From TrEMBL:
Gene Ontology BP, a term: rhythmic process
Entry protein name: KaiB domain-containing protein
Species of origin: Candidatus Methanoperedens nitratireducens
SUPFAM superfamilies according to UniProt: Thioredoxin-like
Pfam families found in the cross-reference section: KaiB (PF07689)
InterPro entries: KaiB-like, KaiB_domain, Thioredoxin-like_sf
Domain KaiB: 17-98
């Protein structure tokens, strides 16, 4: 059975940065999937920053973005990176370290 990892700090805020390239269907799907996952697993304890690389391409260098959409977990450390539209909820939860891999 998968176990949800709990934080030692109950007031900890998760900072998630979603890199996209415009308002494409894939970008919109990634944001919707991320929002749903956050509401279900991090309710009230997260902040999503959406970075549109069509408007700010230089920001791709900061987190070494090679593909979009890409999700970066900035806080809590360590930084984690997930590429894709985030439709595989189980993979996203494991990638964010919210659930352990079996």
């Amino acid at each position: 059975m998968n176990e949800v990892k709990t934080s030692e700090n109950k007031d900890e805020v998760w900072v998630l940065r979603l890199y996209v390239a415009g308002q494409t269907p894939r970008s919109l799907t990634a944001f919707a999937n991320l929002k749903k996952i956050c509401e279900e697993h991090l309710a009230g304890k997260y902040r999503i920053e959406v970075i549109d690389l069509t408007k700010n391409p230089q920001l791709a260098r900061v987190d070494q973005i090679l593909a979009v959409p890409t999700l970066i977990r900035r806080l809590p450390p360590p930084m984690r990176k997930i590429i894709g539209d985030l439709s595989n909820t189980e993979r996203v939860l494991v990638g964010l370290n919210l659930r352990r891999e079996d």
